[in-house]
Request: fold
Amino acid sequence: MPASEVLDVSRLIDERKLSAFNLKLLVLCFLAVLFDGYDIGAVAFAGPYLIKEWSITSMADLGPVIAASLAGIVVGSPVFGYVGDRFGRKAAIIGSMVAFGIFTLAAVKAGGVRDLLYLRFLAGIGLGGLMPNVNALTAEFSPRRIRATMIIVMFSGITIGGAVPGVVSASLAPEYGWQILFYIGGIAPLLLAIVLAAALPESIKFLVLKTERRGEILATLLRLVPGGQFRGDARIVIGEEAAAHAGFRPSMLFAGYLKWMTPLLWLLFVCDLLSFNFIFGWTPIVLSQAQVSRETAALATSVFQIGGTIGGLALARPIDKFGVMPVSLSFMAAMPIVGAIGFLAWSAPLLLGILFLAGFCLIGILFALNALSALVYPTAIRSNGSGWALGVGRFGSAAGPIIGGYLIDMKLSPTQLFMTLLVPLGIGTLASIFATRIYYGARMRGPAVAD
Reply:
């Protein structure tokens, strides 16, 4: 290759077919988010044991414990987003896994609600750092034509992981106690962090922005294209983003069309995560109090997660083709579906069916929003963009369980409880319609912002 020739890594990645390199990366990131999903869900399944062992009488006391890790995510997402854009996606991913692994493992020694609340908050900081960086890493090695699909397939690990604590709770917790949920949730990510340190590649697009790491760029190119011929003195760029930013400033998240897209994306995350965590955190307890059989109540969360995994995968290709529009349609569909949950508690088959559809919409939306957060921001601020969106969105995550606890203590019926979710879902519907118009307007005016 002549020294004067420019090597555009964006074009190289976009023109390549999926390879063993892509599949290996997908598996590693999938496993990382699987443990993230497990850890978030573990405390909800530990809840019934904690209520009995610690003599908890008010659901409002347990709500903050369920929400604590979600509140930690509010802090961790932008903090580790900054780490990812400053020091690399790989360092941020491993650091976040070590952080939530250590504090989850420490939870086995919690002696009461306050101890567990603090430990779950600290674990949440690590949990918050994982998603923006695996999003960025997956996006930056994926061809544009299937980028959203790759992100969504990767992200499906979080719902599969979220279903695993139910199995552990049913099969192991009766013998080993609620602590087994946190032993597994702490040790497994620490072991995976060791594997990732050896096997996970750094984002080549991130490396191109760090000119002092040229040797790593060439080494990563050879991993991506085995046997490729790359001259050491070639000029390597990222399409239209050849120039690196000197540093991150929050104002970058509001440049150009992002001045509208960023706040709308944040609002969509808040509305969806509030509704999702309300249902995920409280449905088993609400159904048990409504005289629904224990078996049906136990199945509810798993069916909700299964529906979400299928919904997320179903939205993958539409997101690649149509951008925000599938999110808008899903929000619209979620309103009557979620509103109907409380009306169907009398029939186990109908209840489980409507929860499946609720998961299909709400978790499907979450999958899509994670993909969009990686699509709308350029490489130089992608981890920060995703991190801030996820961090702000977690205000909704934390609010869902807390609001649910207070509403349950107010003795609202299941019908009334689920009907309250029409408020955030209605706001999300309107916000998604505006976001669709802005996204398409930006695409009509020129090339997509993200490389």
In short: The chain has one domain: 6-445. The radius of gyration is 22 Å.
